[in-house]
Design goal:
mainly alpha; 11% strand; globular
């Protein structure tokens, strides 16, 4: 298994960790520190980046993250989010990371098509998830959860390496 696939599994595992602990109320509660968004909304967002990448590249050679499904059940139901993560994990090991694809996006009203690879876009999904996991950690702590998340939960890999080298 490649280091990138292991990193993706680690981000997904971090998601599984808090989803197994949080109740529906804490999952859907708007949090002032998160500009009124909930842990569930952040969870839906990062899960859908993985889903979008996997679904769109399974049937073609383009990816457009704006075409996410925005499935409200992912942000309202932690058990449903857990099942989505399990589905993503099953698909990861089947990816052809060397495959080239096109990223479609828009800046203002201008469409862009950017050459990229499945490998690069999976790394983007991992880093994007880590960013949202950091926000989940802020939300988790603001809700007064008594169960601590791991100390490096939501830390980028570069931050983890830096902290390991300086301690």
């Amino acid at each position: 298994m490649s280091a990138l696939i292991r990193a993706a599994h680690q981000a997904l595992s971090d998601g599984r960790n808090y989803l197994a602990l949080i109740d529906d109320n804490g999952y859907t509660q708007p949090i002032d520190l998160l500009s009124g968004s909930s842990i569930g909304q952040h969870t839906r967002h990062w899960i859908e980046f993985f889903q979008c990448l996997l679904r769109q590249t399974e049937v073609g050679n383009t990816i457009d993250y704006d075409q996410r499904t925005r499935d409200r059940q992912l942000e309202r139901n932690p058990v449903f989010a857990l099942s989505a993560i399990h589905e993503i994990e099953k698909q990861l090991d089947l990816l052809d990371l060397g495959r080239f694809i096109i990223l479609e996006t828009r800046l203002e009203e201008n469409p862009l098509q950017l050459k990229t690879s499945l490998e690069r876009e999976l790394w983007y999904a991992v880093e994007h998830a880590i960013h949202h996991l950091a926000l989940v950690k802020v939300g988790w702590q603001s809700l007064g959860n008594l169960t601590d998340l791991p100390a490096d939960f939501g830390f980028a890999y570069s931050t983890r390496r830096h902290l390991a080298a300086t301690h």
